Amino acid sequence: MTPEEWLAGFETKIADVQAKAEQFRVGLEAAGTTVASPDGGIRVGVAPNGSLTDLQLADSALAGKSGAKLAEEILKLARKAQRGAAVNVAAAFEPLGGGSEAMHMVTGYVPPEEPEEPPAPEPVRERRLWQHDEPETPPPSPPARRPRPPRDDDDDFGDNTFMRRD
């Protein structure tokens, strides 16, 4: 290989890395995410690094909810947005380090998905002692005890004593 061929190949590699770096920069800038609640009453935005950049609450988000419930929904949406941003950052990094140790390091910090909402629990029905609309089930009987072996009282007072005087 001539020095000119080597230099041309090197310049091609540099141009390729520069193009991938620019693609990464553009992808990273767009990696932030905004997530909304199903009814659209809460919107949470995060930057590519996961920091909170926007929080919008409609009046409908406040209606009939306790502060604790509202905070729980906001945090859940923030975690979902942070995960989305982390996935976007990993996707933006793919052209630079796909399959590399650096790529595994980036994807290793992607938070897990939020679990699906569990079904609402059945309402607890109050039951009073004087209500007899359901048949009572007797309490379970205690486990059966094993019978003791018969005790022979004579064994303790027999002639086999070692304290006997002869």
UniProtKB/TrEMBL annotation:
InterPro entries: YbaB-like_sf, YbaB/EbfC. GO terms for molecular function: DNA binding. Coiled coil: none annotated. Residues 99-166 are annotated as: Disordered. Residues 123-135 have a biased composition (Basic and acidic residues). This is YbaB/EbfC DNA-binding family protein. It comes from Amycolatopsis pretoriensis.
